[in-house]
Amino acid sequence: MTSPVVLQTAIPGLAVRRGKVRDVYDLGETLLLVSTDRISAFDWVLPTGIPDKGRVLTQVAAFWFELLGESNHLITTDVAAMPLPEGADRGVLAGRSTLCRKAEVVPIECVVRGYLVGSGWKEYQKRGTVCGIRLPKGLVECARLDEPIFTPATKAAEGHDENIPFDRMVELVGGALSEELRERSLAIYRRGVEHAAEHGILIADTKFEWGQVDGKVILIDEVLTPDSSRFWPAAEYAPGRGQPSFDKQFVRDWLESTAWDKNSPPPALPDDIVARTRAKYVEAFERLTSRTWS
Description:
Blueprint: E1 16-18, E2 22-26, E3 30-35, E4 40-41, E5 44-45, H1 53-68, E6 74-76, H2 90-93, E7 97-101, E8 104-105, E9 108-115, H3 118-127, E10 129-130, E11 133-134, E12 144-150, E13 153-154, E14 162-163, H4 166-173, H5 175-197, E15 201-213, E16 216-220, E17 229-233, H6 249-257, H7 271-289
Antiparallel strand pairs: 1-2, 2-3, 3-7, 4-5, 6-7, 8-15, 9-12, 9-13, 9-15, 10-11, 13-14, 15-16, 15-17
Helix pairs in contact: 1-7, 4-5, 6-7
């Protein structure tokens, strides 16, 4: 198992915008997105990384971009083909980097839910709705919805995104664009669900990001990855309880078992939690792509 790439200094002298788990380099006409092995939970970046996490996310997203055939920002994930400045560490960047077109970002997280979980389940318990959408009575945690629902959220620079009703999205970005993003997000989710089901994975929910280039709406950021989606093993699905997953649930569960107060720097992760989390990310890649991770 390789060591995690937690902090990137891969392109000396070039300005970098550092997010929780990704670094973004401005190359002029294009952007370079670098997925590190940093991992976040409860709005904190943890001091321990997950080896290969960044490469898994990059390769899963690239797989979906190709499979879906949706207009998107991807130019290449081949570092050898990227116009990188002199001094760039292509070895560190390999497998975890996406060269992409710049776009005017639509400031909405386009969330699609096929199951009642997370913040949707919490709202349903209080009001019987999810983002203002009335759902049938008597649903249990992780229940499969009759039809997937579109539940937008505002993008937060820090902290949690805020769920909003569709009418609020219309106020923010306009009716025509809102309708287009709702229909395209639902369509992509359904196609992703169909493919994943053939490989033993349920996609409980996911979020998409969209941008505009020369007036054309394109898919940006990542798509249908373990960080932007909830992936569940279909064989173990049972409504009425939390589900095992292909993401950082091991990390969340371990943190919940500690004395950490979530208001101070988080503790380092034990080796077994790191190994089990890495294994889940790799398993998701191998199932979805039918490729062996190397």
